[in-house]
Design goal:
Number of helices: 21
Bound molecules: adenosine-5'-diphosphate, magnesium ion
Helix content: 25-40%
Structural class: alpha/beta
Shape: globular
CATH superfamily of one domain: P-loop containing nucleotide triphosphate hydrolases
Number of strands: 20
Strand order of the largest sheet: 10-11-9-12-13-8-14
Radius of gyration: 26 Å
CATH architecture of one domain: 3-Layer(aba) Sandwich
CATH class of one domain: Alpha Beta
CATH topology of one domain: Rossmann fold
Length: about 650
Amino acid sequence: MLVLSDELSKLKNMCESKVKLYAKLGIYTINDLLWHIPRGYMDFTSPVKIKDAKIDELIAVRGKVIDKQWSQKRNLIIYTVLITDGEDELQVKIFNAKQMFHALAFGAEFIFWGKITRVFDAQIMQLRSFARVAPGLTMRPIYGMTAGLASWMIAVNVREVLTRITDLPGFVPPEMAIERGLLELKPAFATIHFPANRELLADARSRLMLEELIDFNLGILKLRAGRCRESLVCVQDCDLTAFYGAVGFKLTLAQERTIEEVVLNIKGGQIVSRLVQGDVGCGKTVVAAAIIYLLCKNGYQAAIMAPTEMLAAQHYNNLAGLFSRLGVTVALLSGGVAVGQKKKILERLAVGEIHCVVGTSALLAEAVEFARLGLVVTDEQHKFGVNQRKKLGEKGMEPHTLIMSATPIPRTLAMMLYGDLDISVINELPPGRLPVKSCFVDSSRRQQVYAFIKKELNKKHQVYIVCPLVEEDGDSDGELVDDDGLKKVVSQAEQLQSSIFKEFKIGFVHGRMRRTEKNKVMQDFKENRIHILVSTTVIEVGIDIPNATVILIENAERFGLAQLHQLRGRIGRSNLQSYCILLSDSRSELIQKRLAFVAAHPNGFEIAEFDLKTRGPGEFLGTRQHGAMRFKIADPYDLELLSLARNIAQKCF
Ligand code: ADP
Ligand code: MG
C-alpha cells in the first residue's frame, strides 16, 4: 500500500531519470502526483459531426477511413487519411507518425482527436490522437508536461497510485459529505484523472476544488493564529521628509495614504501584515521603499522578494540609486550571484552591515541569516504561496510584512484569500497617465502593425514584442522550458533586425539566458540602446521601462486574460500615449471574443470577472488559467465554494 507522503520512487514504473523530470514539475510525492491535475482531456466520448466541428479548437470527430496517402517534404513526412462520417469528408494529417498511419486501417471506424484548421477553402484536421470505435471509450488526461515526460507516462503512474493508495480521508467530515452528496476523495481523484464522461468530471472537480480551498483556508488560519499582534520591532523615528525629498516626484494621495496606514500600525506597536493592492503601474514600489527606509533608519534590516530574477534586479537597481542618497545599503541576492560574492553578502547580512536585501525565492534558503530583520516585502504576491510567505517571516523576530499585488480582486474576496492580512488599496495612477489604447488584429495586418511601430520608434519611443511559450514550468523566471518557443524569440528578433527594422536595434530576452546576459539586455533597453525588445513572458510582471509605448503580443490566444492584462501593464508607465496590439489568427469564436474583450477593457477587475464567466473547465485558453493565484484546481473567484471551505476549515482548525 502507498501513503500520500511516499516518494515517487516507491512506484513500479519509475526510474531515477523520471523522478528528476517530475521534480522539474514540482512533483516529489504521491500526494503531489495526485494533485497534478490534467490541464485538459482528449475526449473520445462525444465526437461531433464533421460539419459541426469548430475551427481551431481541439475536438473529436467520428469517421471511417476511405483513403490513405503520404508525401515527403524534406525531412517531414506527412501522412494523410481521408475520412467520412457518412455526410461529409475530412482530411486528417499526421506528421512523422508512421505507426499511427498504419494503425488507421482502411474501412475501419475511429474517433479522431485533433485540431481543425482551414487551409484556403479546405478543412483539415491535425491529428493528435485516435481511438477505435468500441464500447466504453473514455476521456484521456493531458498533463502539463516537461520534455521527456509525456502525458501517457504520467497517466501510467497515476493509475498505479490509484490502485495502490490507501483510503484518503480528506478534510470534509463524513456526515457533511453525505448531506451534500459530495464524492469521497479517492473516487474524485480517480475521476479527475480518468473521467468516464463530462458529467462525472464536474462532480470530481468541485470536490477537489473544495478540498484545496479548505487546505488553503487552514493555512490562512494557522498564519493568523501564529501572528502575534504586538511587535518587538521598535521604530521611534517615523520622519519621511528626507525620503520624499530623494524620490524625485510627488506621491499620489493613494500612495501617501497607504504609507500612513502602515506607519500608523508601526507607531501603534502592532505587527504590520498588510496587502498593498493596486493595478499595474499605480506605483507600489515607492510605497515599499518608504517603509524599507523607515525600518533601516531605525536600525533594522529589510528584505524584498520578487518572483523573477529580472524583477529583483530592477528593484535592486532602483533602490540602490534611491538609497545611496539616504545612507541605506542594498544588496542583490539571487540564484545567479557568484559563490564568493554571495558568501560575502551573507556575512554582511548576518552582522547587519547590509540594511536591505533584494532577491528571489533564493532568500528563503536556510543559509540566509539576518542580524535584525524588521520587514519583509513580497512583490507580486500571487506568484508566491502561503507557505513561502510564512517561511521568510520565520527568519526574523516577527518582522513586519508587506505584500504587493496587482491582482484585481474584489475586496470581499481579498479579505478571504488574505484573511491573515490588513489591506490597503492604491486606487489611483500617477498624474498624467493616459489610458492605453488596445486593439486586436490578425496577421493580415502585420505590415500595418510594423509601420505603426516604426512611427513610434521614430519618436524615440520603445517597443516590446512578446512571444508565447507552449508550456509553463517552474524555472527561476517561472517559464517553461520550451525550446521551440525560445527559438522563436531569437529567430523573430533576428528576422526583424535584418529586414524591416534595419535602422533600429533589436534585442531579446528569455528565461534561459544567463542572468548577466539578461541584465545587460534589460539595462540596454532601459537606456534606449535597444529599441525593440523581443521576449517571452519573463517581462510579464513588474518590469518598468516608462519610455516603452507599444507592446505587440504575438499568438495572443495562447495567454490567459489576466496575463494579457499584466503584459499590457508594461506600457502606459509615463505620460506618453501607449498602445497594446493583440495579434492572433485563431478562428475560435470564443478566443476572438475573449481577446476583443481585453482590447476593449482597460480595467483589470472587469477582465478578471469576464475571464471567470467565459472559461469552461478543462478548456485550453492560455497556459496560465489562474492569473490571480496559483491554485491547482480551485477557482478563488468561486465565492460560494470559498466560503463553504472557510466554514469547514474553521471547524477542523
Ligand atoms: P507597480 O505598482 O506596477 O509596481 P511601479 O512601482 O513600478 O508600479 O511604478 C510605475 C512607474 O511609475 C515607475 O516608473 C515609478 O517610478 C513611477 N511612479 C510611481 N509613483 C509615481 C508618482 N507619484 N508620480 C510619478 N511617477 C510615479
Ligand atoms: Mg511592481
